[in-house]
Amino acid sequence: MSQKPLRVLGAGVVLGAAAAVAAGSAAYAQEDPIRIGSFLSITGPASFLGDPEQKTLEMYVDRINADGGVLGRQLELVVYDDAGDANEARTFATRLIDDDEVDIIIGGSTTGATMAVVPLVEEAHIPFISLAGAVVIIDPVNAWVFKTPHTDRMACQKIFEDMQARDISSIGMISGTGGFGTSMREQCLEVAGDYGITVVADETYGPRDSDMTPQLTNIRNTDGVEAVLNPGFGQGPAIVTRNFAQLGIDVPLYQSHGVASASFIELAGDAAEGVRLPAAALLVAEDLPADDPQRDVVVTYKTEFEEQWDQPVSTFGGHAYDALFIAVDAMERAGTTQPEALRDAIEQTTGFMGTAGEVNFSPEDHLGLDLSAFRMLEIRGGTWTIAD
Question: Is 110 helix (H, G, I), strand (E, B) or coil?
Answer without folding.
Answer: coil
